Amino acid sequence: MSSSVGDNSLGRGGSDDNDDDDEPDMDGLLAAEDAAEEINEEDAVMNSDDDEDEVILHNDAIAYFDLAPDSLFAIAQHPQRHSLIAVGGSGGRSDDAPGLGWIFDAERRPVLPPSYHARPSSLDSLGTLDGHSDSISALSWTLPHGQVLLSAGLDGRLRAWNTVVAEEGGNTTLSLLAEAREVDEINWLAPCPDSASHPGVMALGASDGSVWVYDVSSEEEPLRILQSYYLHTASCTAGAWSLDGNLLATVSEDGSLCVWDVWHLFADAGLRAEAGGGLAAVSLTTADQRFAVDGGLFSVAMDPGGAFVAVGGAAGAIRIVSLPRLSPGASPSSAGQVLASLCSQSDSIESLATTRTSSTTLLAAGSVDGSIAIFDATRRFSLRRLIHSAHQGLSVVHVDFVPSSSSEWLLDSCGLDGVLRRWDLRSADHHHGPLREWRGHRGGDDGAGGVLGFVRGPGGHPIVTAGDDGLALVFVV
């Protein structure tokens, strides 16, 4: 697919699609009548199909990366050089196309005269991720320094790339360190957040239900297996670490939840569950009717305070389960209790996110039915807000709270409509529209397109997206 990005009709401001009277005041955002601009045929954004049908998009991006010949399924951000982005997906449209990935610097844009400032600029590749015989499904740099980039594929390969980040103006380089292939397909990657005690530790989930934990910090053995778990009996669909890095929660299409005691801390304290042969601190399956979700589980999120884990599955079902605590007098029986069963949405829960504000803990859930639900954990997980058509009736792909203490009530979401939106959750009004939105990707109302992931710099900006249209776009807030 040959792609190019056309005219930026709103410059750097993003677009505002909310006409509600109670919309927050957006100083500096262009009014619709001031921003309106006709996009001519010569400003075509991309050629989408083999028959060269032209798709014209409204584009708010300041820069774009368009070397991918097909869908971008994965995106990652360097933990220290936040402008360094990795994207990956399919290397072509045929069924036997290999997986390919690239890294680029979202801030390394050509110097242009003032007349070009309204037009997005093209970004160059700094390196290519190859060697996968099927699509790249997940990408992640190791913590804390981002010395190694891991690419995981639907071919089951896990490839470790040494990343040498140059000083400003220099060239960043990639070189292959090692490859492992223990499974048929890899679904996700998650770096351990406790980078002080466990630097370079990475977890992954596979299509056979297995979960693997690797140590990627050693130059002599850059992909050393620390743990492997086999309690799930179907594909392991999602995984998340606790904020302190002590626990790893995983879910599966078989409807099971496992919370792994990776470092044996809970076993040493006598706080492991009896179920699962003592391998997990918590292990729940569909045999427990209080927990059971028909159709499987697809998303998971940990409470920042370590009190609970939330899992989302088919038909809008969400279960809240208590976690073990490493505290004096703690009992194993306190963990694994179903604290709440939620169902405010009608289709599968594809993404979950949590945040702790100054007054409460919030849980956000994005659904295939196009809605986003917000629950208040301090009020027995009562529904605070339900955004019925967050992405024009198309699936919500990912939700995530803005990582800034000054923006604790802000949530970003992307969907198959091809739009990235930011929501101010201080309002509990179900009909309150988005605070901001950014367009540029092809929408997916015809069964193709959409934003499949995003990353952000400190404070929630800039935002870089990966699309099913093969584009990565850079937006400013």
From TrEMBL:
Pfam families: WD40. Residues 1-32 are annotated as: Disordered. It comes from the Eukaryota. Residues 1-10 have a biased composition (Low complexity). The lineage of its organism: Eukaryota, Fungi, Dikarya, Ascomycota, Pezizomycotina. Transmembrane segments: none annotated. This is Uncharacterized protein. PANTHER family: ANGIO-ASSOCIATED MIGRATORY CELL PROTEIN, MITOCHONDRIAL DIVISION PROTEIN 1-RELATED. Keywords: Repeat, WD repeat. It comes from Ophiocordyceps unilateralis. Residues 16-26 have a biased composition (Acidic residues). The keyword Repeat applies.
